[in-house]
Amino acid sequence: MDKQAALHHFKEHYFTPLLDIQLDLLEAMFHRYQAQLIFDFKESFRNLCIHILSMQQQGQKEPIGYIHYSFLRTQMLEQSYLYMIEAYSAEWYEDDSDCKLTYDASWAYGPMSTMLETLEQERKIYMGTITSVDVERLILESAPLFHQFVSSLLRLGMAEAVQMPEYLAIQKAERLAIRTGEYRDISENLYVEDQEVLLADHVREHLIHSSEEEPYVYENLKQLSLPHLQLMQKDLRYNDFSHSDLRESQFHTCILIGSSWQRANLEGGSLQGCLLTDADFRYSNLEGVHFRGASGQPYREHGVRVPGLCGLHFEHAILDGADFTDVYSFEHAYFEGASMQGTLVPRKYQQHWKLSEAQRQSIVWTE
User: Where does 197-367 sit in CATH, by number?
Assistant: First the structure.
Protein backbone atom coordinates (compact mmCIF):
# COMPACT_ATOMS: atom_id res chain seq x y z
CA MET A 1 0.00 0.00 0.00
CA ASP A 2 1.51 3.34 -1.06
CA LYS A 3 1.40 6.49 1.06
CA GLN A 4 -1.74 8.02 -0.45
CA ALA A 5 -3.67 4.75 -0.34
CA ALA A 6 -2.63 4.21 3.27
CA LEU A 7 -3.72 7.74 4.27
CA HIS A 8 -7.07 7.30 2.53
CA HIS A 9 -7.65 3.97 4.31
CA PHE A 10 -6.54 5.38 7.67
CA LYS A 11 -8.77 8.42 7.34
CA GLU A 12 -11.81 6.42 6.25
CA HIS A 13 -11.52 3.58 8.76
CA TYR A 14 -9.94 5.22 11.81
CA PHE A 15 -9.78 9.01 11.77
CA THR A 16 -13.27 9.95 10.50
CA PRO A 17 -15.22 7.42 12.62
CA LEU A 18 -13.33 8.53 15.74
CA LEU A 19 -13.90 12.20 14.89
CA ASP A 20 -17.66 11.61 14.47
CA ILE A 21 -17.83 9.88 17.86
CA GLN A 22 -15.97 12.72 19.58
CA LEU A 23 -18.16 15.38 17.96
CA ASP A 24 -21.30 13.53 19.08
CA LEU A 25 -19.99 13.36 22.65
CA LEU A 26 -19.01 17.01 22.55
CA GLU A 27 -22.43 18.04 21.29
CA ALA A 28 -24.13 16.15 24.13
CA MET A 29 -21.83 17.85 26.64
CA PHE A 30 -22.39 21.24 25.00
CA HIS A 31 -26.15 21.00 25.59
CA ARG A 32 -25.88 19.46 29.05
CA TYR A 33 -23.46 22.02 30.54
CA GLN A 34 -24.41 25.02 28.45
CA ALA A 35 -25.37 27.25 31.40
CA GLN A 36 -22.02 26.73 33.14
CA LEU A 37 -20.08 27.21 29.90
CA ILE A 38 -21.89 30.49 29.25
CA PHE A 39 -21.15 31.63 32.81
CA ASP A 40 -17.43 30.91 32.35
CA PHE A 41 -17.36 32.76 29.04
CA LYS A 42 -19.04 35.81 30.57
CA GLU A 43 -16.43 35.89 33.32
CA SER A 44 -13.64 35.96 30.74
CA PHE A 45 -15.46 38.73 28.86
CA ARG A 46 -15.92 40.67 32.09
CA ASN A 47 -12.18 40.44 32.80
CA LEU A 48 -11.39 41.69 29.29
CA CYS A 49 -13.68 44.69 29.73
CA ILE A 50 -12.07 45.53 33.09
CA HIS A 51 -8.66 45.37 31.39
CA ILE A 52 -9.84 47.59 28.52
CA LEU A 53 -11.29 50.19 30.89
CA SER A 54 -8.09 50.24 32.95
CA MET A 55 -6.03 50.94 29.82
CA GLN A 56 -8.47 53.60 28.66
CA GLN A 57 -8.40 55.35 32.04
CA GLN A 58 -4.61 55.50 31.73
CA GLY A 59 -4.85 56.92 28.21
CA GLN A 60 -3.36 53.77 26.68
CA LYS A 61 -6.32 52.65 24.55
CA GLU A 62 -8.53 54.39 22.03
CA PRO A 63 -12.29 53.65 21.81
CA ILE A 64 -12.79 49.99 20.93
CA GLY A 65 -13.79 49.04 17.39
CA TYR A 66 -13.04 45.31 17.44
CA ILE A 67 -12.90 42.50 19.96
CA HIS A 68 -11.60 39.25 18.53
CA TYR A 69 -11.63 35.70 19.94
CA SER A 70 -8.92 33.77 18.05
CA PHE A 71 -8.04 30.10 18.14
CA LEU A 72 -4.36 29.31 17.67
CA ARG A 73 -3.97 26.17 15.58
CA THR A 74 -0.19 26.07 16.05
CA GLN A 75 -0.49 25.65 19.84
CA MET A 76 -2.98 22.80 19.75
CA LEU A 77 -0.41 20.03 19.37
CA GLU A 78 1.02 21.24 22.67
CA GLN A 79 -2.49 20.71 24.08
CA SER A 80 -2.90 24.42 24.67
CA TYR A 81 -6.47 25.38 23.91
CA LEU A 82 -6.44 29.03 24.93
CA TYR A 83 -8.17 31.54 22.71
CA MET A 84 -6.47 34.90 22.41
CA ILE A 85 -8.91 37.73 23.11
CA GLU A 86 -7.74 41.01 21.64
CA ALA A 87 -9.31 44.44 21.73
CA TYR A 88 -8.50 46.90 18.96
CA SER A 89 -9.44 50.47 18.12
CA ALA A 90 -11.28 51.22 14.87
CA GLU A 91 -7.88 50.84 13.16
CA TRP A 92 -8.02 47.08 13.86
CA TYR A 93 -4.64 45.44 13.14
CA GLU A 94 -2.96 48.82 12.74
CA ASP A 95 -3.66 49.47 16.42
CA ASP A 96 -0.33 48.66 18.09
CA SER A 97 -1.41 49.18 21.73
CA ASP A 98 -1.64 45.58 22.93
CA CYS A 99 -4.78 44.73 24.86
CA LYS A 100 -5.20 41.00 25.20
CA LEU A 101 -6.24 38.22 27.55
CA THR A 102 -7.05 34.53 27.05
CA TYR A 103 -10.14 32.34 27.17
CA ASP A 104 -9.78 28.67 28.09
CA ALA A 105 -11.62 26.56 25.49
CA SER A 106 -10.24 23.19 26.57
CA TRP A 107 -13.85 22.05 27.15
CA ALA A 108 -14.27 22.07 23.34
CA TYR A 109 -10.83 20.93 22.21
CA GLY A 110 -10.09 18.27 24.83
CA PRO A 111 -11.28 15.52 22.46
CA MET A 112 -8.37 16.38 20.15
CA SER A 113 -5.97 15.07 22.80
CA THR A 114 -7.95 11.84 23.06
CA MET A 115 -7.91 11.45 19.30
CA LEU A 116 -4.18 12.09 19.06
CA GLU A 117 -3.44 9.42 21.64
CA THR A 118 -5.73 6.84 20.03
CA LEU A 119 -4.66 7.47 16.44
CA GLU A 120 -0.99 7.40 17.36
CA GLN A 121 -1.48 3.75 18.30
CA GLU A 122 -3.65 2.86 15.31
CA ARG A 123 -1.23 4.30 12.75
CA LYS A 124 1.35 1.69 13.74
CA ILE A 125 -0.48 -1.07 11.87
CA TYR A 126 0.56 0.71 8.66
CA MET A 127 4.19 -0.28 9.31
CA GLY A 128 5.68 3.20 9.15
CA THR A 129 3.79 4.37 6.05
CA ILE A 130 1.75 6.78 8.20
CA THR A 131 3.82 8.96 10.50
CA SER A 132 3.08 10.98 13.61
CA VAL A 133 3.25 14.10 11.43
CA ASP A 134 0.44 12.71 9.26
CA VAL A 135 -1.73 12.14 12.32
CA GLU A 136 -1.01 15.63 13.65
CA ARG A 137 -1.90 17.18 10.31
CA LEU A 138 -5.27 15.41 10.25
CA ILE A 139 -5.97 16.52 13.81
CA LEU A 140 -5.11 20.15 13.05
CA GLU A 141 -7.28 20.12 9.93
CA SER A 142 -10.25 19.21 12.13
CA ALA A 143 -9.78 22.26 14.41
CA PRO A 144 -12.63 24.28 12.80
CA LEU A 145 -15.05 21.47 13.70
CA PHE A 146 -14.25 22.03 17.38
CA HIS A 147 -14.19 25.80 16.98
CA GLN A 148 -17.83 25.71 15.82
CA PHE A 149 -18.85 24.75 19.36
CA VAL A 150 -16.94 27.71 20.79
CA SER A 151 -18.40 30.17 18.28
CA SER A 152 -21.91 28.85 19.05
CA LEU A 153 -21.35 29.25 22.78
CA LEU A 154 -20.03 32.80 22.38
CA ARG A 155 -23.03 33.68 20.24
CA LEU A 156 -25.40 32.30 22.88
CA GLY A 157 -23.71 34.16 25.71
CA MET A 158 -23.02 37.44 23.96
CA ALA A 159 -26.48 38.96 24.43
CA GLU A 160 -26.04 38.82 28.22
CA ALA A 161 -22.34 39.69 28.13
CA VAL A 162 -22.91 43.04 26.42
CA GLN A 163 -25.40 44.02 29.13
CA MET A 164 -22.78 43.76 31.88
CA PRO A 165 -21.78 47.09 33.47
CA GLU A 166 -18.12 46.36 32.74
CA TYR A 167 -18.85 46.29 29.01
CA LEU A 168 -21.15 49.31 29.11
CA ALA A 169 -18.39 51.32 30.83
CA ILE A 170 -15.76 51.01 28.09
CA GLN A 171 -15.35 53.66 25.39
CA LYS A 172 -16.50 52.37 22.01
CA ALA A 173 -15.85 53.45 18.45
CA GLU A 174 -18.76 54.44 16.21
CA ARG A 175 -19.02 50.77 15.22
CA LEU A 176 -17.88 47.90 17.42
CA ALA A 177 -17.73 44.34 16.10
CA ILE A 178 -17.08 41.29 18.28
CA ARG A 179 -15.70 38.51 16.08
CA THR A 180 -14.23 35.03 16.26
CA GLY A 181 -12.12 32.82 14.01
CA GLU A 182 -8.58 31.62 13.46
CA TYR A 183 -5.84 34.04 14.48
CA ARG A 184 -5.47 36.74 11.81
CA ASP A 185 -7.48 34.68 9.35
CA ILE A 186 -11.13 34.37 8.31
CA SER A 187 -13.51 35.40 11.11
CA GLU A 188 -17.22 36.05 11.61
CA ASN A 189 -19.26 38.62 13.50
CA LEU A 190 -20.80 37.55 16.78
CA TYR A 191 -22.18 40.95 17.72
CA VAL A 192 -22.24 44.42 16.15
CA GLU A 193 -22.98 47.69 17.93
CA ASP A 194 -23.35 51.06 16.23
CA GLN A 195 -23.13 54.32 18.15
CA GLU A 196 -24.53 56.17 15.15
CA VAL A 197 -28.33 56.12 15.16
CA LEU A 198 -29.72 54.33 12.11
CA LEU A 199 -32.73 55.78 10.32
CA ALA A 200 -35.65 53.35 10.22
CA ASP A 201 -36.71 54.45 6.72
CA HIS A 202 -33.17 53.89 5.44
CA VAL A 203 -33.05 50.39 6.93
CA ARG A 204 -36.52 49.61 5.58
CA GLU A 205 -35.34 50.45 2.07
CA HIS A 206 -32.25 48.25 2.45
CA LEU A 207 -34.36 45.33 3.66
CA ILE A 208 -36.94 45.66 0.89
CA HIS A 209 -34.38 45.98 -1.90
CA SER A 210 -31.91 43.34 -0.67
CA SER A 211 -31.36 40.45 -3.08
CA GLU A 212 -29.36 37.27 -3.59
CA GLU A 213 -26.62 39.37 -5.13
CA GLU A 214 -26.73 41.91 -2.29
CA PRO A 215 -28.08 40.19 0.85
CA TYR A 216 -28.61 42.25 3.99
CA VAL A 217 -26.88 40.15 6.66
CA TYR A 218 -24.91 40.49 9.93
CA GLU A 219 -26.35 43.97 10.54
CA ASN A 220 -27.25 45.74 13.76
CA LEU A 221 -30.94 46.67 13.37
CA LYS A 222 -31.70 47.21 17.05
CA GLN A 223 -34.15 49.74 18.49
CA LEU A 224 -35.80 50.61 15.19
CA SER A 225 -39.45 51.32 14.43
CA LEU A 226 -40.32 49.02 11.51
CA PRO A 227 -44.00 48.06 11.91
CA HIS A 228 -45.94 46.50 9.03
CA LEU A 229 -42.77 45.46 7.19
CA GLN A 230 -43.52 43.16 4.23
CA LEU A 231 -40.62 40.92 3.17
CA MET A 232 -40.58 37.75 1.09
CA GLN A 233 -37.73 35.37 0.24
CA LYS A 234 -35.01 37.63 1.67
CA ASP A 235 -31.66 36.47 3.06
CA LEU A 236 -31.49 38.20 6.47
CA ARG A 237 -29.26 35.79 8.37
CA TYR A 238 -27.58 36.92 11.59
CA ASN A 239 -29.29 40.31 11.62
CA ASP A 240 -30.04 41.70 15.09
CA PHE A 241 -33.58 43.08 15.40
CA SER A 242 -33.48 43.26 19.21
CA HIS A 243 -35.66 45.93 20.91
CA SER A 244 -37.23 46.86 17.54
CA ASP A 245 -40.91 47.51 16.85
CA LEU A 246 -41.96 45.01 14.17
CA ARG A 247 -45.67 44.78 14.96
CA GLU A 248 -47.71 43.02 12.25
CA SER A 249 -44.63 42.61 10.07
CA GLN A 250 -44.68 39.77 7.54
CA PHE A 251 -41.55 37.70 6.93
CA HIS A 252 -42.45 34.99 4.40
CA THR A 253 -39.99 32.24 3.44
CA CYS A 254 -37.03 34.36 4.53
CA ILE A 255 -33.64 33.03 5.63
CA LEU A 256 -33.36 34.14 9.26
CA ILE A 257 -30.57 31.81 10.42
CA GLY A 258 -28.95 33.09 13.62
CA SER A 259 -31.13 36.20 13.74
CA SER A 260 -31.73 37.88 17.09
CA TRP A 261 -35.08 39.33 18.19
CA GLN A 262 -34.54 39.84 21.92
CA ARG A 263 -37.19 42.11 23.44
CA ALA A 264 -38.52 42.91 19.96
CA ASN A 265 -42.25 43.38 19.37
CA LEU A 266 -43.59 41.18 16.56
CA GLU A 267 -47.17 41.06 17.83
CA GLY A 268 -49.60 39.96 15.13
CA GLY A 269 -46.82 39.30 12.64
CA SER A 270 -45.81 36.30 10.59
CA LEU A 271 -42.68 34.19 10.12
CA GLN A 272 -44.37 31.62 7.89
CA GLY A 273 -42.05 29.30 6.02
CA CYS A 274 -38.93 31.01 7.35
CA LEU A 275 -35.65 29.24 8.09
CA LEU A 276 -35.14 30.04 11.77
CA THR A 277 -32.17 27.83 12.68
CA ASP A 278 -30.45 29.26 15.81
CA ALA A 279 -32.82 32.26 15.99
CA ASP A 280 -33.10 33.98 19.38
CA PHE A 281 -36.49 35.34 20.49
CA ARG A 282 -35.79 35.66 24.23
CA TYR A 283 -38.05 38.19 26.02
CA SER A 284 -39.80 39.15 22.76
CA ASN A 285 -43.50 39.78 22.18
CA LEU A 286 -44.69 37.10 19.75
CA GLU A 287 -48.38 37.25 20.61
CA GLY A 288 -50.41 35.88 17.72
CA VAL A 289 -47.38 35.37 15.47
CA HIS A 290 -47.76 32.73 12.74
CA PHE A 291 -44.79 30.33 12.53
CA ARG A 292 -46.60 27.89 10.21
CA GLY A 293 -44.19 25.92 8.02
CA ALA A 294 -41.12 27.50 9.65
CA SER A 295 -38.00 25.36 10.04
CA GLY A 296 -35.24 25.09 12.59
CA GLN A 297 -33.35 22.62 10.38
CA PRO A 298 -29.75 22.19 11.61
CA TYR A 299 -26.89 21.83 9.17
CA ARG A 300 -25.18 18.44 9.26
CA GLU A 301 -22.48 17.51 6.76
CA HIS A 302 -19.02 16.00 7.27
CA GLY A 303 -18.85 17.07 10.90
CA VAL A 304 -20.06 20.63 10.30
CA ARG A 305 -22.90 21.37 12.75
CA VAL A 306 -23.27 25.12 12.40
CA PRO A 307 -25.80 26.54 12.13
CA GLY A 308 -27.83 24.34 14.44
CA LEU A 309 -25.93 24.01 17.70
CA CYS A 310 -27.56 26.96 19.45
CA GLY A 311 -31.14 25.80 19.02
CA LEU A 312 -34.23 28.05 19.04
CA HIS A 313 -34.66 30.28 22.07
CA PHE A 314 -38.03 31.56 23.25
CA GLU A 315 -37.27 31.93 26.96
CA HIS A 316 -39.50 34.52 28.69
CA ALA A 317 -41.20 35.41 25.40
CA ILE A 318 -44.92 36.16 25.06
CA LEU A 319 -46.26 33.42 22.78
CA ASP A 320 -49.96 33.71 23.60
CA GLY A 321 -52.00 32.69 20.56
CA ALA A 322 -48.90 32.00 18.45
CA ASP A 323 -49.29 29.31 15.80
CA PHE A 324 -46.60 26.62 15.45
CA THR A 325 -48.67 24.48 13.07
CA ASP A 326 -46.53 22.44 10.66
CA VAL A 327 -43.20 23.74 11.98
CA TYR A 328 -40.39 21.22 11.61
CA SER A 329 -36.98 20.58 13.15
CA PHE A 330 -38.04 22.49 16.29
CA GLU A 331 -36.85 19.70 18.60
CA HIS A 332 -34.16 21.89 20.19
CA ALA A 333 -36.40 24.79 21.23
CA TYR A 334 -36.37 26.33 24.71
CA PHE A 335 -39.33 27.98 26.44
CA GLU A 336 -38.40 28.56 30.09
CA GLY A 337 -40.61 31.31 31.53
CA ALA A 338 -42.50 31.84 28.24
CA SER A 339 -46.21 32.68 28.28
CA MET A 340 -48.00 30.16 26.03
CA GLN A 341 -51.71 30.77 26.60
CA GLY A 342 -53.58 29.31 23.63
CA THR A 343 -50.39 28.64 21.69
CA LEU A 344 -51.00 26.11 18.89
CA VAL A 345 -48.33 23.38 19.05
CA PRO A 346 -48.13 20.02 17.22
CA ARG A 347 -48.48 17.15 19.68
CA LYS A 348 -45.22 15.58 18.45
CA TYR A 349 -43.26 18.22 20.39
CA GLN A 350 -44.69 17.14 23.75
CA GLN A 351 -41.81 14.72 24.19
CA HIS A 352 -39.10 17.10 22.96
CA TRP A 353 -39.81 20.43 24.65
CA LYS A 354 -39.01 20.95 28.31
CA LEU A 355 -42.16 22.73 29.50
CA SER A 356 -43.64 23.62 32.85
CA GLU A 357 -46.93 22.05 33.85
CA ALA A 358 -48.61 25.44 33.48
CA GLN A 359 -47.32 25.74 29.91
CA ARG A 360 -48.50 22.24 29.03
CA GLN A 361 -51.95 23.06 30.33
CA SER A 362 -52.21 26.39 28.50
CA ILE A 363 -51.02 25.09 25.11
CA VAL A 364 -53.55 23.95 22.51
CA TRP A 365 -52.09 20.67 21.24
CA THR A 366 -52.76 19.88 17.59
CA GLU A 367 -52.30 16.75 15.51
Answer: 2.160.20
